[in-house]
Protein backbone atom coordinates (compact mmCIF):
# COMPACT_ATOMS: atom_id res chain seq x y z
CA UNK A 1 0.00 0.00 0.00
CA UNK A 2 1.12 3.54 -0.74
CA UNK A 3 0.17 6.21 1.83
CA UNK A 4 -1.29 9.45 0.52
CA UNK A 5 0.52 12.77 0.33
CA UNK A 6 -0.70 13.97 3.74
CA UNK A 7 0.48 10.80 5.47
CA UNK A 8 3.86 10.96 3.77
CA UNK A 9 4.08 14.59 4.88
CA UNK A 10 3.59 13.48 8.50
CA UNK A 11 6.28 10.82 8.15
CA UNK A 12 8.72 13.23 6.49
CA UNK A 13 8.21 16.00 9.07
CA UNK A 14 8.75 13.51 11.90
CA UNK A 15 11.78 12.06 10.14
CA UNK A 16 13.29 15.56 9.79
CA UNK A 17 12.95 16.04 13.53
CA UNK A 18 14.66 12.75 14.36
CA UNK A 19 17.44 13.33 11.80
CA UNK A 20 18.23 16.66 13.47
CA UNK A 21 18.00 15.11 16.93
CA UNK A 22 20.25 12.07 16.48
CA UNK A 23 23.89 12.10 15.29
CA UNK A 24 25.15 10.72 11.97
CA UNK A 25 21.65 10.77 10.40
CA UNK A 26 20.47 7.85 12.57
CA UNK A 27 17.07 9.54 12.57
CA UNK A 28 16.59 8.30 8.99
CA UNK A 29 15.51 4.98 10.52
CA UNK A 30 12.37 6.66 11.87
CA UNK A 31 11.18 7.02 8.25
CA UNK A 32 11.43 3.25 7.74
CA UNK A 33 9.83 2.45 11.10
CA UNK A 34 6.86 4.81 10.64
CA UNK A 35 6.07 3.63 7.10
CA UNK A 36 6.49 -0.03 7.98
CA UNK A 37 4.75 -0.09 11.37
CA UNK A 38 2.24 2.67 10.80
CA UNK A 39 1.18 2.15 7.17
CA UNK A 40 2.27 -1.46 6.57
CA UNK A 41 4.59 -0.53 3.71
CA UNK A 42 6.98 -3.38 2.92
CA UNK A 43 10.50 -3.06 4.25
CA UNK A 44 12.13 -3.23 0.76
CA UNK A 45 9.95 -0.34 -0.43
CA UNK A 46 10.78 1.67 2.71
CA UNK A 47 14.52 1.19 2.35
CA UNK A 48 14.57 1.74 -1.41
CA UNK A 49 12.59 4.98 -1.21
CA UNK A 50 14.84 6.19 1.62
CA UNK A 51 18.00 5.37 -0.33
CA UNK A 52 16.74 6.97 -3.55
CA UNK A 53 15.57 10.13 -1.79
CA UNK A 54 18.93 10.43 -0.02
CA UNK A 55 20.85 9.97 -3.28
CA UNK A 56 18.83 12.53 -5.21
CA UNK A 57 18.90 14.94 -2.29
CA UNK A 58 22.68 14.81 -2.71
CA UNK A 59 22.21 15.47 -6.42
CA UNK A 60 20.14 18.57 -5.64
CA UNK A 61 22.77 19.72 -3.15
CA UNK A 62 25.45 19.23 -5.80
CA UNK A 63 23.50 21.37 -8.27
CA UNK A 64 23.19 24.18 -5.71
CA UNK A 65 26.91 24.05 -4.89
CA UNK A 66 27.69 24.03 -8.62
CA UNK A 67 25.57 27.17 -9.05
CA UNK A 68 27.50 28.82 -6.19
CA UNK A 69 30.81 27.90 -7.85
CA UNK A 70 29.66 29.34 -11.19
CA UNK A 71 28.60 32.55 -9.46
CA UNK A 72 31.98 32.79 -7.73
CA UNK A 73 33.76 32.27 -11.04
CA UNK A 74 32.17 35.40 -12.49
CA UNK A 75 32.07 37.66 -9.44
CA UNK A 76 33.63 36.88 -6.09
CA UNK A 77 36.53 34.55 -6.80
CA UNK A 78 36.34 30.81 -6.29
CA UNK A 79 37.07 29.27 -2.90
CA UNK A 80 39.07 26.04 -3.54
CA UNK A 81 37.45 24.19 -0.65
CA UNK A 82 33.99 24.86 -2.15
CA UNK A 83 35.12 23.16 -5.38
CA UNK A 84 36.45 20.30 -3.25
CA UNK A 85 33.06 19.98 -1.58
CA UNK A 86 31.35 19.86 -4.98
CA UNK A 87 33.70 17.11 -6.17
CA UNK A 88 33.12 15.11 -2.98
CA UNK A 89 29.32 15.38 -3.29
CA UNK A 90 29.52 14.31 -6.93
CA UNK A 91 31.66 11.28 -6.08
CA UNK A 92 29.33 10.19 -3.28
CA UNK A 93 26.30 10.56 -5.56
CA UNK A 94 27.97 8.49 -8.30
CA UNK A 95 28.94 5.83 -5.75
CA UNK A 96 25.35 5.62 -4.48
CA UNK A 97 23.97 5.24 -8.01
CA UNK A 98 26.37 2.38 -8.73
CA UNK A 99 25.65 0.81 -5.35
CA UNK A 100 21.86 1.01 -5.61
CA UNK A 101 21.30 -0.15 -9.16
CA UNK A 102 23.87 -2.60 -10.62
CA UNK A 103 25.78 -2.96 -7.34
CA UNK A 104 22.90 -4.28 -5.25
CA UNK A 105 21.93 -6.81 -7.93
CA UNK A 106 25.52 -8.08 -8.15
CA UNK A 107 25.80 -8.31 -4.35
CA UNK A 108 22.50 -10.23 -4.16
CA UNK A 109 23.67 -12.81 -6.67
CA UNK A 110 26.90 -13.27 -4.74
CA UNK A 111 24.98 -13.79 -1.49
CA UNK A 112 22.62 -16.30 -3.12
CA UNK A 113 25.59 -18.27 -4.46
CA UNK A 114 27.22 -18.20 -1.04
CA UNK A 115 23.99 -19.45 0.61
CA UNK A 116 24.06 -22.61 -1.50
CA UNK A 117 27.52 -23.46 -0.22
CA UNK A 118 26.96 -22.76 3.48
CA UNK A 119 25.56 -25.57 5.63
CA UNK A 120 22.75 -25.47 8.19
CA UNK A 121 21.60 -22.32 9.93
CA UNK A 122 24.28 -20.15 8.31
CA UNK A 123 23.07 -21.15 4.86
CA UNK A 124 19.44 -20.49 5.73
CA UNK A 125 20.24 -17.07 7.20
CA UNK A 126 22.33 -16.14 4.15
CA UNK A 127 19.54 -17.31 1.85
CA UNK A 128 17.03 -15.08 3.67
CA UNK A 129 19.43 -12.16 3.33
CA UNK A 130 19.78 -12.88 -0.39
CA UNK A 131 16.00 -13.07 -0.82
CA UNK A 132 15.57 -9.73 0.92
CA UNK A 133 18.29 -8.20 -1.25
CA UNK A 134 16.56 -9.52 -4.37
CA UNK A 135 13.28 -7.89 -3.30
CA UNK A 136 15.06 -4.62 -2.60
CA UNK A 137 16.85 -4.72 -5.96
CA UNK A 138 13.55 -5.49 -7.69
CA UNK A 139 11.88 -2.46 -6.13
CA UNK A 140 14.79 -0.25 -7.19
CA UNK A 141 14.61 -1.57 -10.76
CA UNK A 142 10.87 -0.81 -10.87
CA UNK A 143 11.61 2.73 -9.70
CA UNK A 144 14.16 3.24 -12.45
CA UNK A 145 11.82 1.74 -15.07
CA UNK A 146 9.00 4.08 -13.98
CA UNK A 147 10.82 7.04 -15.53
CA UNK A 148 10.47 9.34 -12.51
CA UNK A 149 14.14 10.08 -11.85
CA UNK A 150 13.96 13.46 -13.59
CA UNK A 151 11.01 14.45 -11.44
CA UNK A 152 12.91 13.25 -8.37
CA UNK A 153 15.78 15.59 -9.16
CA UNK A 154 13.40 18.50 -9.76
CA UNK A 155 11.47 17.86 -6.53
CA UNK A 156 14.66 17.43 -4.50
CA UNK A 157 16.06 20.64 -5.96
CA UNK A 158 12.84 22.50 -5.19
CA UNK A 159 12.88 21.31 -1.57
CA UNK A 160 16.54 22.31 -1.18
CA UNK A 161 16.01 25.76 -2.71
CA UNK A 162 12.98 26.44 -0.50
CA UNK A 163 14.88 25.23 2.55
CA UNK A 164 17.91 27.44 1.95
CA UNK A 165 15.77 30.45 1.11
CA UNK A 166 14.14 30.06 4.51
CA UNK A 167 17.51 29.63 6.20
CA UNK A 168 18.93 32.66 4.41
CA UNK A 169 15.96 34.80 5.47
CA UNK A 170 16.58 33.74 9.08
CA UNK A 171 20.32 34.35 8.70
CA UNK A 172 19.81 37.82 7.23
CA UNK A 173 17.36 38.71 10.01
CA UNK A 174 19.75 37.68 12.79
CA UNK A 175 22.78 39.32 11.15
CA UNK A 176 20.96 42.57 10.34
CA UNK A 177 19.82 42.98 13.95
CA UNK A 178 22.91 41.86 15.84
CA UNK A 179 25.80 42.36 13.38
CA UNK A 180 24.86 45.02 10.81
CA UNK A 181 28.49 45.30 9.64
CA UNK A 182 28.62 41.63 8.59
CA UNK A 183 28.62 40.72 4.91
CA UNK A 184 25.27 38.99 4.23
CA UNK A 185 25.89 38.20 0.57
CA UNK A 186 23.64 35.21 -0.30
CA UNK A 187 26.52 33.16 -1.73
CA UNK A 188 28.64 33.57 1.41
CA UNK A 189 25.68 32.84 3.65
CA UNK A 190 24.62 29.73 1.70
CA UNK A 191 28.15 28.31 1.82
CA UNK A 192 28.17 28.71 5.61
CA UNK A 193 24.68 27.20 5.97
CA UNK A 194 25.52 24.21 3.79
CA UNK A 195 28.75 23.67 5.74
CA UNK A 196 26.88 23.81 9.05
CA UNK A 197 24.35 21.25 7.84
CA UNK A 198 27.13 18.96 6.66
CA UNK A 199 28.87 19.26 10.02
CA UNK A 200 25.70 18.28 11.90
CA UNK A 201 25.37 15.18 9.67
CA UNK A 202 28.83 13.87 10.47
CA UNK A 203 29.15 10.67 12.57
CA UNK A 204 29.87 12.56 15.78
CA UNK A 205 28.23 11.89 19.18
CA UNK A 206 26.40 15.23 19.30
CA UNK A 207 22.77 15.32 20.39
CA UNK A 208 20.58 17.59 18.23
CA UNK A 209 23.73 18.49 16.28
CA UNK A 210 24.81 21.07 18.87
CA UNK A 211 28.52 21.71 18.60
CA UNK A 212 29.16 20.15 15.21
CA UNK A 213 26.65 22.47 13.48
CA UNK A 214 28.13 25.60 15.04
CA UNK A 215 31.74 24.51 14.48
CA UNK A 216 31.31 23.74 10.77
CA UNK A 217 29.29 26.89 10.07
CA UNK A 218 31.68 29.07 12.08
CA UNK A 219 34.73 27.73 10.24
CA UNK A 220 33.06 28.39 6.88
CA UNK A 221 32.15 31.96 7.86
CA UNK A 222 35.67 32.60 9.16
CA UNK A 223 37.13 31.24 5.91
CA UNK A 224 34.99 33.80 4.12
CA UNK A 225 36.33 36.63 6.30
CA UNK A 226 33.82 36.88 9.17
CA UNK A 227 34.86 37.38 12.78
CA UNK A 228 35.02 34.26 14.97
CA UNK A 229 32.76 35.54 17.75
CA UNK A 230 30.15 36.89 15.34
CA UNK A 231 30.23 33.63 13.36
CA UNK A 232 29.66 31.52 16.46
CA UNK A 233 26.83 33.69 17.76
CA UNK A 234 25.04 33.73 14.41
CA UNK A 235 25.32 29.97 13.89
CA UNK A 236 24.14 29.27 17.45
CA UNK A 237 21.18 31.64 17.01
CA UNK A 238 20.23 30.05 13.70
CA UNK A 239 20.50 26.58 15.19
CA UNK A 240 18.29 27.36 18.17
CA UNK A 241 15.65 29.20 16.12
CA UNK A 242 15.53 26.56 13.37
CA UNK A 243 15.34 23.78 15.96
CA UNK A 244 12.34 25.44 17.57
CA UNK A 245 10.54 25.42 14.21
CA UNK A 246 11.74 21.91 13.35
CA UNK A 247 10.68 20.34 16.64
CA UNK A 248 7.37 22.16 16.69
CA UNK A 249 6.44 20.88 13.22
CA UNK A 250 7.93 17.44 13.84
CA UNK A 251 6.22 17.07 17.19
CA UNK A 252 2.80 17.97 15.76
CA UNK A 253 3.36 15.58 12.84
CA UNK A 254 4.40 12.73 15.15
CA UNK A 255 1.37 13.18 17.40
CA UNK A 256 -0.95 13.35 14.38
CA UNK A 257 0.67 10.21 12.94
CA UNK A 258 0.19 8.36 16.22
CA UNK A 259 -3.49 9.31 16.38
CA UNK A 260 -4.25 8.42 12.74
CA UNK A 261 -2.43 5.08 12.79
CA UNK A 262 -3.67 4.01 16.21
CA UNK A 263 -6.85 2.42 14.87
CA UNK A 264 -4.96 0.48 12.19
CA UNK A 265 -2.48 -0.84 14.72
CA UNK A 266 -5.31 -1.88 17.01
CA UNK A 267 -7.05 -3.82 14.21
CA UNK A 268 -3.91 -5.83 13.47
CA UNK A 269 -3.22 -6.50 17.13
CA UNK A 270 -6.78 -6.93 18.43
CA UNK A 271 -6.07 -10.44 19.61
CA UNK A 272 -2.92 -9.40 21.45
CA UNK A 273 -3.05 -8.27 25.06
CA UNK A 274 -1.89 -4.75 25.82
CA UNK A 275 1.77 -4.67 26.76
CA UNK A 276 4.43 -2.21 27.72
CA UNK A 277 5.89 -0.38 24.71
CA UNK A 278 9.60 0.35 24.81
CA UNK A 279 9.20 2.26 21.55
CA UNK A 280 6.73 4.67 23.13
CA UNK A 281 8.85 5.15 26.24
CA UNK A 282 11.96 5.77 24.13
CA UNK A 283 10.09 8.33 22.01
CA UNK A 284 8.84 10.15 25.11
CA UNK A 285 12.30 10.18 26.69
CA UNK A 286 13.90 11.45 23.48
CA UNK A 287 11.29 14.19 23.20
CA UNK A 288 11.80 15.26 26.83
CA UNK A 289 15.59 15.18 26.44
CA UNK A 290 15.36 17.27 23.28
CA UNK A 291 13.05 19.78 24.97
CA UNK A 292 15.39 20.03 27.97
CA UNK A 293 18.46 20.54 25.80
CA UNK A 294 16.67 23.13 23.70
CA UNK A 295 15.73 24.99 26.89
CA UNK A 296 19.36 24.89 28.05
CA UNK A 297 20.66 26.19 24.71
CA UNK A 298 18.03 28.93 24.63
CA UNK A 299 19.04 29.99 28.14
CA UNK A 300 22.70 29.99 27.08
CA UNK A 301 21.84 32.24 24.15
CA UNK A 302 19.99 34.64 26.45
CA UNK A 303 23.02 34.75 28.74
CA UNK A 304 24.98 36.35 25.91
CA UNK A 305 22.91 39.46 26.51
CA UNK A 306 20.90 41.75 24.26
CA UNK A 307 21.48 41.38 20.52
CA UNK A 308 21.05 45.10 19.88
CA UNK A 309 22.12 48.13 21.91
CA UNK A 310 19.76 49.97 24.26
CA UNK A 311 18.45 53.44 23.59
CA UNK A 312 20.76 56.35 24.36
CA UNK A 313 20.99 57.18 28.04
CA UNK A 314 20.59 60.57 29.65
CA UNK A 315 21.77 62.11 32.87
CA UNK A 316 19.14 61.99 35.62
CA UNK A 317 19.49 63.83 38.92
CA UNK A 318 18.23 61.81 41.89
CA UNK A 319 15.01 63.10 43.40
CA UNK A 320 16.54 62.90 46.86
CA UNK A 321 20.09 63.20 48.14
CA UNK A 322 22.82 65.80 47.88
CA UNK A 323 24.07 64.84 44.40
CA UNK A 324 27.41 66.38 43.42
CA UNK A 325 27.13 68.87 46.28
CA UNK A 326 27.78 65.97 48.63
CA UNK A 327 31.25 65.57 47.11
CA UNK A 328 32.41 69.08 48.01
CA UNK A 329 36.02 68.97 49.09
CA UNK A 330 36.73 65.71 47.25
CA UNK A 331 39.38 66.17 44.57
CA UNK A 332 39.94 63.71 41.73
CA UNK A 333 37.93 62.25 38.89
CA UNK A 334 35.71 59.32 37.99
CA UNK A 335 35.84 57.37 34.70
CA UNK A 336 32.94 55.22 33.53
CA UNK A 337 31.14 53.92 30.43
CA UNK A 338 27.99 55.69 29.21
CA UNK A 339 25.90 55.61 26.04
CA UNK A 340 24.63 59.18 26.45
CA UNK A 341 26.32 60.00 23.12
CA UNK A 342 24.45 57.17 21.35
CA UNK A 343 27.27 54.66 21.79
CA UNK A 344 28.96 53.20 24.87
CA UNK A 345 32.04 55.44 25.22
CA UNK A 346 34.25 56.35 28.17
CA UNK A 347 33.58 59.57 30.07
CA UNK A 348 35.46 61.44 32.80
CA UNK A 349 33.90 63.66 35.46
CA UNK A 350 36.18 65.93 37.49
CA UNK A 351 35.58 66.43 41.19
CA UNK A 352 34.46 68.55 42.88
CA UNK A 353 33.50 70.85 39.99
CA UNK A 354 31.60 68.12 38.09
CA UNK A 355 33.09 69.01 34.68
CA UNK A 356 32.36 66.31 32.10
CA UNK A 357 34.74 65.15 29.34
CA UNK A 358 34.29 62.45 26.70
CA UNK A 359 37.41 60.29 26.49
CA UNK A 360 36.62 58.00 23.53
CA UNK A 361 34.54 58.23 20.35
CA UNK A 362 35.18 54.79 18.87
CA UNK A 363 32.14 53.20 17.10
CA UNK A 364 32.52 49.98 19.11
CA UNK A 365 31.34 49.32 22.67
CA UNK A 366 33.70 50.25 25.52
CA UNK A 367 33.31 49.35 29.17
CA UNK A 368 35.11 48.28 32.36
CA UNK A 369 37.58 51.21 32.62
CA UNK A 370 40.21 50.96 35.35
CA UNK A 371 42.42 53.93 36.28
CA UNK A 372 46.13 53.24 36.81
CA UNK A 373 47.58 53.74 40.31
CA UNK A 374 49.30 56.97 39.18
CA UNK A 375 46.02 58.32 37.74
CA UNK A 376 47.49 59.03 34.29
CA UNK A 377 46.22 56.05 32.26
CA UNK A 378 43.05 54.03 31.84
CA UNK A 379 42.83 50.42 30.72
CA UNK A 380 39.49 49.18 29.41
CA UNK A 381 37.72 46.60 27.22
CA UNK A 382 36.58 47.41 23.67
CA UNK A 383 34.27 45.13 21.67
CA UNK A 384 35.30 43.57 18.37
CA UNK A 385 31.92 44.50 16.82
CA UNK A 386 29.96 47.76 17.12
CA UNK A 387 27.65 46.34 19.78
CA UNK A 388 28.38 43.55 22.25
CA UNK A 389 26.59 43.04 25.56
CA UNK A 390 28.88 42.86 28.57
CA UNK A 391 27.28 39.47 29.30
CA UNK A 392 29.08 38.11 26.25
CA UNK A 393 32.62 37.57 27.54
CA UNK A 394 34.41 36.63 24.31
CA UNK A 395 34.65 39.31 21.57
CA UNK A 396 36.65 41.97 23.46
CA UNK A 397 40.11 43.52 23.27
CA UNK A 398 42.13 45.28 25.98
CA UNK A 399 43.07 48.91 25.22
CA UNK A 400 45.25 51.42 27.08
CA UNK A 401 44.39 55.15 27.04
CA UNK A 402 46.79 57.94 28.05
CA UNK A 403 44.70 60.61 29.79
CA UNK A 404 47.24 63.37 29.12
CA UNK A 405 47.65 62.86 25.36
CA UNK A 406 44.47 60.93 24.48
CA UNK A 407 46.54 58.34 22.60
CA UNK A 408 45.40 54.74 22.61
CA UNK A 409 47.36 51.49 22.46
CA UNK A 410 46.00 48.00 21.86
CA UNK A 411 47.40 45.84 24.66
CA UNK A 412 45.81 42.45 23.92
CA UNK A 413 43.41 40.80 21.51
CA UNK A 414 40.61 38.64 22.87
CA UNK A 415 40.88 40.01 26.39
CA UNK A 416 38.24 41.26 28.83
CA UNK A 417 37.78 42.96 32.25
CA UNK A 418 41.36 44.30 32.64
CA UNK A 419 42.78 45.48 35.96
CA UNK A 420 46.08 46.95 37.18
CA UNK A 421 48.88 45.67 39.37
CA UNK A 422 49.70 47.84 42.38
CA UNK A 423 52.86 49.22 40.74
CA UNK A 424 51.12 50.02 37.42
CA UNK A 425 53.64 48.00 35.40
CA UNK A 426 51.35 45.07 34.65
CA UNK A 427 47.78 44.57 33.54
CA UNK A 428 45.75 41.46 34.29
CA UNK A 429 42.79 40.40 32.16
CA UNK A 430 40.63 37.40 31.27
CA UNK A 431 40.75 35.45 28.02
CA UNK A 432 38.18 32.85 26.93
CA UNK A 433 36.49 33.41 30.31
CA UNK A 434 38.72 30.78 31.95
CA UNK A 435 42.28 32.15 31.63
CA UNK A 436 43.73 34.86 33.87
CA UNK A 437 46.53 36.49 31.88
CA UNK A 438 49.33 38.79 33.09
CA UNK A 439 50.70 41.37 30.63
CA UNK A 440 53.76 43.59 31.01
CA UNK A 441 52.70 47.03 29.81
CA UNK A 442 56.15 48.08 28.61
CA UNK A 443 57.03 44.95 26.61
CA UNK A 444 53.59 43.50 25.83
CA UNK A 445 54.76 40.07 27.05
CA UNK A 446 51.91 37.80 28.19
CA UNK A 447 51.79 34.87 30.63
CA UNK A 448 48.84 32.77 31.79
CA UNK A 449 48.66 32.96 35.60
CA UNK A 450 45.63 30.73 36.25
CA UNK A 451 43.44 28.62 34.00
CA UNK A 452 40.35 26.63 34.98
CA UNK A 453 40.85 22.90 34.60
CA UNK A 454 44.65 23.16 34.32
CA UNK A 455 46.66 24.80 37.10
CA UNK A 456 43.60 26.04 39.01
CA UNK A 457 41.70 23.54 41.15
CA UNK A 458 38.30 23.99 39.51
CA UNK A 459 36.72 22.30 36.49
CA UNK A 460 37.40 23.61 33.00
CA UNK A 461 33.72 24.65 32.75
CA UNK A 462 34.17 27.20 35.57
CA UNK A 463 34.35 30.76 34.26
CA UNK A 464 36.35 33.50 35.94
CA UNK A 465 35.00 37.03 36.31
CA UNK A 466 36.28 40.45 37.42
CA UNK A 467 39.75 39.47 38.77
CA UNK A 468 41.42 41.76 41.31
CA UNK A 469 45.01 41.27 42.51
CA UNK A 470 46.10 42.06 46.04
CA UNK A 471 48.76 44.79 46.18
CA UNK A 472 51.06 42.35 48.01
CA UNK A 473 51.40 38.56 48.19
CA UNK A 474 49.99 37.53 44.80
CA UNK A 475 46.47 36.61 45.94
CA UNK A 476 43.68 37.32 43.47
CA UNK A 477 40.00 37.92 44.23
CA UNK A 478 37.68 36.45 41.62
CA UNK A 479 34.09 35.49 40.92
CA UNK A 480 33.29 31.95 39.71
CA UNK A 481 30.46 31.35 37.26
CA UNK A 482 29.40 28.59 34.87
CA UNK A 483 30.30 25.22 36.41
CA UNK A 484 30.49 26.80 39.88
CA UNK A 485 29.06 29.96 41.46
CA UNK A 486 30.97 31.68 44.25
CA UNK A 487 33.25 34.53 45.17
CA UNK A 488 36.71 33.40 46.24
CA UNK A 489 40.31 34.35 46.89
CA UNK A 490 42.95 32.37 44.99
CA UNK A 491 46.16 32.38 47.01
CA UNK A 492 49.57 32.53 45.36
CA UNK A 493 50.00 28.76 45.84
CA UNK A 494 46.66 28.01 44.13
CA UNK A 495 44.65 27.39 47.30
CA UNK A 496 41.05 28.59 46.93
CA UNK A 497 39.31 30.29 49.85
CA UNK A 498 35.59 30.68 49.21
CA UNK A 499 34.10 33.94 50.46
CA UNK A 500 30.47 33.15 49.63
CA UNK A 501 27.91 34.20 47.07
CA UNK A 502 27.61 37.49 45.22
CA UNK A 503 29.96 38.87 42.57
CA UNK A 504 32.69 41.42 41.76
CA UNK A 505 34.93 40.56 44.71
CA UNK A 506 37.68 43.23 44.77
CA UNK A 507 40.71 44.12 46.87
CA UNK A 508 41.00 47.57 48.41
CA UNK A 509 43.97 49.61 47.12
CA UNK A 510 46.00 48.93 50.29
CA UNK A 511 44.93 45.27 50.59
CA UNK A 512 43.44 45.68 54.07
CA UNK A 513 39.95 44.51 53.08
CA UNK A 514 37.82 43.06 50.29
CA UNK A 515 34.46 44.27 49.03
CA UNK A 516 31.83 42.76 46.77
CA UNK A 517 28.19 42.93 45.66
CA UNK A 518 25.58 40.59 47.12
CA UNK A 519 21.87 40.40 47.85
CA UNK A 520 20.31 41.91 50.97
CA UNK A 521 19.94 45.55 49.97
CA UNK A 522 16.93 47.82 49.63
CA UNK A 523 16.62 47.05 45.91
CA UNK A 524 18.08 43.54 46.23
CA UNK A 525 21.79 44.41 45.92
CA UNK A 526 24.15 46.02 48.40
CA UNK A 527 27.93 46.35 48.84
CA UNK A 528 29.64 44.26 51.51
CA UNK A 529 33.06 44.65 53.13
CA UNK A 530 35.04 41.52 54.06
CA UNK A 531 37.99 40.93 56.38
CA UNK A 532 40.57 38.96 54.31
CA UNK A 533 41.67 37.00 57.38
CA UNK A 534 38.26 35.77 58.54
CA UNK A 535 36.35 36.17 55.23
CA UNK A 536 33.33 37.37 57.20
CA UNK A 537 31.34 39.99 55.24
CA UNK A 538 29.44 42.91 56.73
CA UNK A 539 27.05 45.36 55.08
CA UNK A 540 29.05 48.38 53.97
CA UNK A 541 26.89 50.49 51.64
CA UNK A 542 23.26 50.43 50.50
CA UNK A 543 22.38 53.65 48.67
CA UNK A 544 19.29 55.59 49.73
CA UNK A 545 16.76 56.84 47.19
CA UNK A 546 15.51 55.27 43.98
CA UNK A 547 18.95 54.22 42.64
CA UNK A 548 19.88 51.49 45.10
CA UNK A 549 20.60 48.43 42.91
CA UNK A 550 24.39 48.54 43.30
CA UNK A 551 26.86 47.07 40.82
CA UNK A 552 30.57 47.51 39.93
CA UNK A 553 31.73 49.33 43.09
CA UNK A 554 35.11 51.09 43.06
CA UNK A 555 37.27 52.54 45.82
CA UNK A 556 39.41 55.63 45.15
CA UNK A 557 43.05 54.85 44.32
CA UNK A 558 44.22 57.36 46.93
Task: Provide a concise account of the structure shown.
By secondary structure, the protein is α+β, with helices and mostly antiparallel strands.
Q: What structural class do you assign from the helix and strand content? A: alpha+beta
What is the radius of gyration computed over CA atoms, rounded to a whole number of angstroms? Answer: 31 Å
> What shape does the CA trace take?
elongated
User: Which blocks of ≥5 consecutive residues have pLDDT under 50?
Assistant: 265-276
Which key features would you list for this structure?
2 domains; elongated; four-stranded antiparallel sheet; about 45% helix; about 550 residues; Neuraminidase; alpha+beta
Amino acid sequence: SVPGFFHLLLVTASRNMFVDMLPARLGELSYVAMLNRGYRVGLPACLSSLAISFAFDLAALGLIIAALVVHQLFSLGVEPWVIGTLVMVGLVFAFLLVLLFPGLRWATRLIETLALRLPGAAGRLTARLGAFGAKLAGVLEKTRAAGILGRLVALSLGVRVAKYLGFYTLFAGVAAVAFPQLDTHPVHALIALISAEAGASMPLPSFMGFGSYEAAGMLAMMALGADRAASLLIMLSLHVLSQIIDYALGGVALITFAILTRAAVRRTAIARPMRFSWYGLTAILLFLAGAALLAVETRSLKKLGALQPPDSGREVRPAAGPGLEGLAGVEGFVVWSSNRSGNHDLWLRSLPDGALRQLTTHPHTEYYPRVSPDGRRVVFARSQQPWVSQRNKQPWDVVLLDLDTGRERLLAKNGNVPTWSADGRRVFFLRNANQLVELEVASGKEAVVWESGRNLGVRASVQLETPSFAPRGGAVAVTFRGGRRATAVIEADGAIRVVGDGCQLTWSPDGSYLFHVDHGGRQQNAIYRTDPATLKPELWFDAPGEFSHEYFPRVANT
